[in-house]
Specification:
The protein is α/β, with parallel strands linked by helices. It has helices spanning 27-42, 71-89, 106-112, 140-148, 150-159, 165-170, 180-195, 199-215, 217-227, 235-246; strands spanning 4-9, 12-17, 47-52, 95-99, 102-104, 116-120, 124-126, 163-164, 176-178. The strands form 2 sheets. A 6-stranded mixed sheet has the order 1-2-3-4-6-9, sandwiched between helices. It has a 3-stranded mixed sheet with strand order 5-7-8. A hairpin with a 2-residue loop joins β1 and β2 (12-17). The chain starts with a strand and ends in a 15-residue tail after the last helix.
Amino acid sequence: MSKVRFETSDALGLITLANPPLNLFDQELIDDLRTAVGQARQHPLRALLVRADGKNFSGGADVAIFKNKTAKEARERFTSHLRTIADLEELPFPTIAAVQGACMAAGLEIALACDLIWTASSARFGQVEASIGTTTLLGGVQRLAERAGPSRAREIIYTADQYDAATFERWNIVNRVVPDEKFESETRAFAERLAGGATLAYAAGKKIVRAYLERGIRAADALVGEIAPALFETADMRAGVDGLIEHGPRQFRDKVIFQGR
């Protein structure tokens, strides 16, 4: 049985870590995650929700996968794993991580690869790799620095401490903290809201944000001129402008189909 499920609900995709109680990242789960992200890339989705079965999002890696590995073996493995992280980040529609319970190490790195992170109020976070003598292996520290700044990222990885959801929200690492009893329903409702939105516009906005993060304001400005004009010829924008003028907000219908990098 797969340790990661991919499903669709209308235009919403769902990737579920399915290895409770801790959803530990062993080689099988990593392979299954790569497959699930590939499936999401091939579907004409409007949004993707990344979630987990059980009480915990993920306790991180099954450390048995590190035992007696050489530097060469580690390099080959993590080059491949980082490609999966990049594939998740590069999906051309909104992605939301829904985090409950423990979200540690590799689990946090998967969440950080999503556009947005929603969390239950009782969730706990940490990059604990220093406790076994290594650093983040799936891009955690640089993605923490992207969201919270370099000083916070250093603190998180140096201490290997656990942090509550309110702290991570205050540090701009997570977007929304939801009461435990409302977490599943509110997160799903928000994902469905995005799945009913302007998918092509979202894809354009996502590219502009990435251009800014990688190359700065001027590169993002230049990209606007490359990708935004095409939106004026889409059914969504034309009908959206006309409909807003005449009748108020409308449902969006254009879809984006991933064509590869």
